Amino acid sequence: MTKRKFKVPHTLVILFSMVVLAQMMTYVIPAGSFDRFETESGRMQVVPGSFHLTPDVPFVSPFVSLTAIPKGFSGAHEIIFFVFIIGGLFAVLRATGSLEAGMASLLRRWGDRPFWLIAGGITLFAFGASTVGFGEEYYPFVPVVVSLCLALGYDRLTAIGIIMVGYGAGYGPAIINPFTTLIAQDIAGLEPASGMWYRIICFFIFVGIGIHHVWSYAQKVKRDPAASLVADIEVPAGAAIPRSQDATALAELAPMTNVQKQIMSAVGAGMVLLIYGMIVWKWGLFEMQALFAGLVLVIAVLARMSPDRTATEFSIGAGSLTSVAILIGVARAIQVVLDEGGVVDTMVYGISVPIQELPAAASAVGMFFVQSVLNFFIPSGSGQAYVTMPIMAPLADIVGVTRQVAVLAFQFGDGFSNILIPTQYVLIGILAMAGIPYDRWLRFIMPFMVKVAIVGSLALVVAVFIGYD
Question: Which terminus in the chain has less CB density within 10 A, N or C?
């Protein structure tokens, strides 16, 4: 009798199981809440020491796991529509042949220096996350980076590693991230952007660890394609990313035509406008969606593509990312269930209490791991800052560490775990776009997370001993 091999469930099965688990937790964990007040920016902030049980919270319906799913889709609608528009944009762009021709030109110039492509990509994605707080803005880069990596003889996991490891390595130290660092420092009563010198050092250390991790894996796949963690995972026909056989012939393509150069110049200008709009005009997802929708029209005009064909290609591209949208909506449903059960504040309070009994250095490391756990339940950086920092900042005073250390522990916990937890829609969305199951991602990213946990803990211990402030 042969022993059956365990089969890892589909990512959607894993996420729905977590929705059900969240419902079970609401029956075991008592509902509780902190008092809150409205800040000058209009955000609700926790009042330290105000936690109390709230027995009047309505009992969670037995059907909440089902009702939470459409609520999750509703709560994540901006991201979902953003994904659909990106899928449509890249389908139209690929129909012009411009993307492949542009990648071919890049390969002819840099193909013999793949290390610098990988290292440079990780550094750029890290810098964007660390300074501007980029996350979902990286969705449009998935097809491009996947195309490059496949053409270089790597795999899709290498490509997503470049994006997501860069994202995590930058979001963790967060030099001046307005959504984490600046908000947390404001709550803790610190000068905006203070202590930057230490975060810059940490940035380069973690980026270096990330480059080593991705490059080592990429080299292993280059030597033996069968060693790829996604070697047995097929890319569906019509997906927004190329299949291996589509990409390997890129370097053999003819040089770009004048029209293709114009189209890629328009795309490049759109990316510059996107970054400028984010930084200067404080654009949100609606403005970004409008920019990409407009870019579809510009590409169609430059390529002299008929309205009917443009609509057809756009619909096919958007439809190819339906599974991505489903995963994002179900991931959001986990948070919906916990919010309706009123147990998030209880968990924040319960997890933070034991830290008070630890020595100073151990308390700082404890804050790091507490924030990592809480990020599963509060996967918004700014949201987590408003809930936890009013607790962690006074707690830092009690245990004898500076508030700057408490902010750094929050950044590490929130930023690094963003590339691990399945409730983080940026991670789930990008994995789904690349056709990478969550369990394969875990096998790839866990060694990196172990390194980050060790080095991050050491960095916090050093920060405590030098009185980082």
Answer: N
